[in-house]
## 1
Amino acid sequence: MGKILIFGHQNPDTDSIISSIVMAYFERKFGNDVEACRQGAINKETEFVLNRLNIQAPTLINDVEDGTEVILVDHANIKESVPNLDNAIILKIIDHHNVALNTSYPLYYRAEPVGCTQTVMYKLFRENNIEIDKTIATLMVSAIISDTLLFKSPTCTKEDVEVAKKLSEIAGIDIEEYGMELLKAGTDLSSFTIDEILNLDAKEKLLKDKSAIIAQVNTASIDDVLKMKAELEEGIRKIIKEKSLDIFMFVITDIVNSTSKAIVLGNSATIAERAYNEKIVDNLIELKGVVSRKKQIVPIMTENA
Ligand code: MG
Ligand code: MG
Ligand code: MG
């Protein structure tokens, strides 16, 4: 048997990358032969954490071979996983999303409706009496800060805050100061092409019978990102055509003021107008107070599709 591969979702965010590293560390404590993997490029926010700790990025994979044993972290969705997932053997899933896959065999499944996979991982460490050292604590708290936008996202629970606090003590960081530095690192889009920006944190979603991509970027200035509006729109139109999408929503989230605007294109763009009771003007819609795709976009867009 080859190594057990551990990976998060496609277009990996900080939680997906960190979850694969931390879960690999956890599994090795039990003597399991595992490899931390990733399905896509590292974003600037994740790079900030890995550089600070001098940790290598997980191994890039595009797919897995038949019969590969895998552990999924930060996703439980067949559409966000490797193409050949059906022919792999899922040993475990550690997650904080809805379940969107089936297996014909039993597996270890641990998911909780919290703001970050690392809040669940923290419990696994505690339940198994495995020590969390400074490096692991820094990784874990970084993922919680990222997923909860420094506790400002409606996905954030009391548990996320409590766990992050404990981890920040082990990590020896000031959570507010470090957190802002981390989030700001993620807003640097300067080295990416338009296609890469559109893909950085894009998720394919089915809004009832409408096929959608909802992509998101964090910024300290929405206007700054909108300087690229024409190019972004051109890139979005290309993706809509290639993937026969009904709607593409590019959400630009202001992490300082916790609000968003979105570029919305596609034949079903008006779903967004109904969902938010706002007009789309010049392909742009105001999403007041919206920061979470999971809680404030996908459900309400589905309802109005
Ligand atoms: Mg994620
Ligand atoms: Mg997550
Ligand atoms: Mg996210």
## 2
Amino acid sequence: MTRALRVRSYAKVNLGLEVLGVREDGYHELRTLFQTIDLHDDITLRPRKAGIVVRCDHPLVPTDATNLAAQAAEALRRYARIASGVEITIRKRIPVGGGLGGGSSNAAAVLLGLDRIWRLGLGPAGLHLLARRLGADVPFFLLGGTALGLARGDEVYPLHQQLRAWVVLVDPGLPVSTARVFARVDAGLTPRGNSSSIFYFVSRELQGARAFRLLVNDLEEAALEEAPALRGQARRIRGVLLKEGARLAALSGSGSSYFGLFDGARAARRACAALAAEGLQAQVTRTVTLEQYRGSGARRRAR
Ligand code: C5P
């Protein structure tokens, strides 16, 4: 039997997110800019004779069949008609309910890892359909880097310009349910028409500071309604990040994590210290480009 495989499962932030309307399937039509960051969970895949078993060190992560990583393994096992099973051990670092795509990333990492263990040769393109059935954010994690997400967010196009920046991530410790935030959006949804700040953004130099002012997150108001305790914190977090020179200070996805983008490590560390001094839980990480994300496959090692 093949030996165990360890893979990294990276988090993402949404640099911008526009809600365009409600779709017939009940989901929302989106236009979003995804970005992988270096913060990651570690996943170990150990082949076993039968059955799918999940272990995780985080109390909020289910280890039964509702875990998205378990569902990913089961979906691929059926699709490829594999008789054997796998044990999935997840070491969590990505905050749960933070809008950082932890669960979706875990699912994509399991698909990519099992594709290797079971020698299926499907790759990101061959896994795309299974990924989108698991969740709207899962296909993005087959590619990583800086990418445009359309439709439910599951139609993903890597950008020619990949963003390189330092990221200060703030976890307010108030997990928020994505489904509930989207449900709240409907009430206040005003049609965006064809206006697209993201289009203007991608047509400019990504490294240019001014372009970031164009980006918005249409889920923020709904997230703040869903978690009222977040509102005061959000103001403080944004205030500190901008004062310390962040090019962009925004909520990621449906929240509750906020992040700031910085050109240099020193400014990022200063911002992190300033947030910590205010009693906020912050950490410094970096963007992971498409190339770096692909290259991280080399670090996936058998044990
Ligand atoms: O696809 P996923 O299960 O990650 O989505 C979580 C929830 O977020 C969905 O059940 C849906 O309510 C909402 N959602 C949405 N429109 C999207 C993506 C997610 O309404 N484009």
